[in-house]
Write a structure and sequence with these properties.
By secondary structure, this protein is mostly beta strands. Helix content is 6%, strand content 46%. The chain contains 1 helix and 8 strands, in the order E-E-E-E-E-H-E-E-E.
């Protein structure tokens, strides 16, 4: 399983958020380096965001959710054109799950399991 996973739920519809582009970045001294990306499936997930054999180093990372694409696809107007979730990994190599609960006018997140 990928060390980083995500799940996006549209809490207004009570359904997974399908076709939402997501990009994973790592913070460097120069800015942000893109590591991976994909689009959510019918379950609101991206299978294999990172290869199973990839272990990220400790540091600051960012998941960029292109929510405007999702809202346009659903013929909605959203207040947040994107959501960036910035988080810090330790050196343990543990699995990190970054869920996003989304509505057109709000969102929340937490460290999942």
């Amino acid at each position: 399983m990928s060390q980083i996973t995500t799940h996006v739920l549209d809490t207004t519809r009570g359904l997974p958020a399908k076709d939402l582009p997501i990009t994973l970045f790592m913070q460097t001294k120069e800015g942000w380096d893109k590591l991976a990306g994909g689009v959510t499936n019918t379950d609101g997930r991206i299978g294999g965001l990172l290869s199973d054999d990839v272990t990220l180093s400790a540091g600051i990372y960012r998941m960029h959710f292109e929510t405007s694409v999702y809202f346009k696809h659903n013929k909605e107007t959203g207040f947040y054109p994107y959501v960036d979730i910035v988080f810090e990994l330790d050196a343990s190599g543990s699995h990190y799950h970054i869920p996003l609960l989304l509505t057109a006018y709000g969102y929340s997140t937490y460290r999942g399991s």
